[in-house]
Amino acid sequence: MNHFLFSTSSLFLLLSLLFPSLGKCQDIPNLPKSNSDVQQLLNNSSQELPLKLADAVYLALQNNRDLKIAYLQRILDQKQLKETESQFNPTFTPQLSLNMNNNQTGSNSNNNITAGLSASLNWKIPTGGNLTLTWQGQNQLLRNNSLDTSSETNTLSQNLNFNFSQPLLKGFGTGLNTLSIQRARLTENANILNLKNTISQTITTTIVSYRSLLLAQERLKIEKLSVANAKKDLERLQALFEFGRIPKNDLVERQADIAQQEVNLLNTQTNLEQAISDLIRIIDLPINKKLVAVETPQTPSSLNLRTFAEMLELAKANNNGYLAALNAVENAKFGITEAKNQQQLDLRLNFGYGFNSASNTQDTNNLSSSLILSREFGNLSQDNAVAKSEINLQSANYTLAKTQDNLNEELKTRIRNVNDTFTQIKLAQEARNLAEARVINAKERMRLGSNISMTDVINFEKSLVDAQNQELNAIINHLNSMTQLEQFLGIALNQWLKN
Question: What is the rounded distance in angstroms from the CA atom of residue 434 to the CA atom of residue 91?
Answer without folding.
Answer: 81
